[in-house]
Write a structure and sequence with these properties.
It is a single chain. Helix 5 packs across helix 7 and helix 9 packs across helix 11. The longest helix has 26 residues. The protein is 20% helix and 26% strand. The chain is globular and about 75 Å long. The two termini are 49 Å apart. The strands form seven sheets. It has a nine-stranded mixed sheet. Strands 2, 5, 6, 7, 8, 14 and 15 form a seven-stranded antiparallel sheet that branches. It has a seven-stranded mixed sheet with strand order 23-24-25-26-27-28-30. Strand 11 and strand 12 form a beta hairpin. By secondary structure, the chain is α+β, with helices and mostly antiparallel strands.
């Protein structure tokens, strides 16, 4: 199938991605973005095995559903419960027999093979007869833009198994992993150094996120010494232009590797003013050889394939798995028993529900929702670690804080998971060694694999090292945002039509009221307050008389104007907590939010031409 931007079904979970074929989206500068040449190999792709219409999807029953693709004659099983959907081919892994309903199963979770009576629990995709034998290969379930369902198969499903290598003994100090802050790790791998996701200075998501931990004082020197950098995706807590600007001042040619996502990771490089000249875009599911001992492979996320990635790094046969922010990395298929696994854990990386009001969104409802969702995330991560059985697990990529005084409410409301709580949960259910990192702490993989109790296996930062930040340099970054408030563009009310025409979202029955506000989300004196009818992309003075969904979005004037002026994605507004929202009815309008968070044009509006026409 052709490459697509899709959305995956997450019942009660994160925002979904919609289906739209994508042509060439990124005009790369020849000297900056390089497609990496690889040995003859097959890039990981996806194939649609079954497409259910919206009516067929709506009629799926709770429990086991037997499905058939009438065109191909192939059979599938889909299991549905309140929280998720799971699917597989209707084919026993033993000798390819067909599954039927298991009449001895009163819980509605298992099926029986017609050949040898093997039984599969489709709620867990594990065979229960014979017990402990196999796990069923799982398909990816995704929702299309019309609320139909797609069953997808990754090919190859386990690309890391190509050219397998047996683990070799590691000398002490040969492989060291140093935590810097948030999702940034500094890896020493033999005589090579690799860095993950360097956000080490400045804010993320406009002004909403700030670093919780104080990075080691030599962080810039560490970056400059790196042989290569991996950046997982375009969100600014992973792709930090303030950090990269400092790096580019010393090493503009440092190799930076990103996955070949539909929305290019560095889509905004030209606008950023950061002079990086050696960005390498690599295909999914193919080993990238660094030297004879070191290689890595970038994999796509099954829920956000158009923007999110994860990585496997392998040194002398020892794998390090970093799933970063992926909701369902590689469609849920991951290597087991890796040497070291790291993943996000904290939650709270969304404006929902803290920035919503009206209807059910009372403070009590928000608090209970947040508590429930954080517990679900903890349990999910603990189950994932138990299933994958890494030798060592490290929770990271969740160490941020809403430290600006104007975001005090968010900071107090947006409770995040405690990494130690997750690690304790993991240790209750498995023998996996856990590591809660502190800035500057170093894990010696060779020592830890040989003896997890070795006192030199993890070297903590020196006594007296500052762990948590207690001050942030807000000024320079707020100055950049505030400069947009008085920009000449906004002297002309016709900017509204110009902007939304550029954005390109229409033919959707939704009316949105946009209100520019001050710090406290009260109307900004002299600010704009307007309606956008996305059915015909008009800008009425009053709401239309037809039946229509309605959203009211209050946005801090400095951030919304900065976003508009520079053609940025609305993640800065929504994930950055810079809006307050009400909606009637209480429905998530996926197509609208997905467009403004993912699918805006890759080049900003032509404000120069706009201003000429305004004269």
């Amino acid at each position: 199938m052709g490459r697509q931007v899709r959305r995956a079904l997450v019942l009660g979970g994160k925002a979904e991605m919609d289906v739209q074929p994508v042509e060439c989206m990124f005009k790369r500068r020849d000297k900056v973005h390089h497609k990496v040449a690889t040995k003859p190999s097959i890039e990981q792709t996806t194939e649609i095995l079954l497409h259910l219409s919206p009516d067929e999807a709506a009629n799926l029953k709770e429990g086991i559903n037997f499905l058939r693709n009438k065109k191909t004659g192939k059979d599938y099983i889909l299991y549905k419960n309140k929280s998720r959907l799971r699917a597989c081919k209707n084919m026993c892994k033993h000798q390819g027999g067909l599954f039927i309903k298991d009449i001895e199963d009163f819980d509605g979770r298992s099926v029986r093979c017609t050949k040898h009576n093997w039984k599969l629990d489709v709620s867990s995709m594990k065979y229960i007869n014979p017990p402990g034998s196999f796990c069923q290969d799982e398909l990816v379930v995704e929702m299309d833009e019309g609320n139909g369902l797609l069953l997808l198969e990754l090919n190859p499903p386990n690309p890391w198994d190509s050219e397998p290598r047996s683990p070799e003994d590691l000398a002490y100090g040969e492989v060291q992993v140093t935590y810097l802050t948030h999702a940034c790790m500094d890896l020493k791998l033999g005589d090579k150094r690799m860095v993950f996701d360097p956000w080490l200075t400045g804010p993320a998501f406009a002004r909403g996120w700030w670093l919780l931990h104080e990075p080691p004082s030599d962080w810039l020197e560490r970056l400059c010494r790196a042989d290569l950098i991996y950046i997982s995706h375009m969100h600014s807590d992973h792709l930090s232009y303030p950090t990269l600007k400092k790096l580019a001042g010393r090493r503009p040619d440092i190799p930076i590797y990103v996955g070949n996502t539909e929305r290019p990771v560095f889509w905004n490089l030209n606008q950023s003013g950061v002079q990086l000249t050696n960005i390498k875009v690599v295909p999914f599911g193919i080993w990238q050889q660094v030297d004879k001992n070191l290689r890595f492979m970038i994999l796509m996320d099954g829920v956000h394939p158009e923007m999110d990635t994860c990585i496997i790094v392998e040194y002398k046969g020892h794998k390090i798995l970093n799933t970063v922010d992926c909701t369902r990395p590689n469609g849920g298929r991951l290597p087991g028993k890796v040497a070291l696994m790291m993943s996000d854990f904290a939650g709270g990386a969304s404006g929902f529900p803290m920035t919503f009001s009206g209807g059910k969104f009372t403070e009590e409802w928000k608090a209970q929702f947040i508590k429930t969702e954080r517990r679900k995330l903890l349990n999910y991560k603990a189950r994932l670690v138990k299933d994958l059985q890494p030798r060592i697990y490290c929770p990271f990529a969740g160490y941020f804080v809403e430290s600006h005084p104007s975001d005090k409410y968010i900071k107090e409301t947006n409770i995040k998971n405690d990494p130690n709580e997750l690690n304790n949960l993991i240790k209750k259910n498995s023998d996996v060694v856990t590591w809660t990192p502190r800035p500057g702490a170093t894990l010696d993989l060779g020592r830890m694999l040989k003896d997890p109790t070795d006192s030199k296996g993890i070297i903590e930062p020196p006594e007296g090292t500052k762990i948590y930040k207690d001050s942030w340099d807000f000024g320079p970054y707020l100055k950049i945002l505030n400069a947009s408030i008085e920009d000449e563009i906004f002297r002309h009310s016709s900017w509204i039509k110009e902007y939304y025409t550029w954005a390109g979202f229409k033919d959707y029955n939704l009316v949105v009221r946009m209100i520019e506000t001050d710090e406290d989300f009260s109307p900004f004196p002299g600010g704009y307050d307007y309606l956008v009818d996305f059915l015909d992309l008009s800008f009425p003075k009053e709401r239309p008389s037809r039946e229509h969904p309605y959203e009211e979005i209050r946005s801090r004037v400095d951030v919304i104007r900065h976003v508009v002026k520079n053609g940025l994605l609305w993640d800065d507004l929504y994930i950055g907590f810079q809006t307050r929202l009400q909606r009637d009815p209480d429905i998530y309008h996926h197509l609208f939010w997905n467009h403004f968070q993912i699918k805006l044009p890759l080049t900003p509006p032509n404000w120069k031409t706009f201003l000429v026409h305004c004269e």
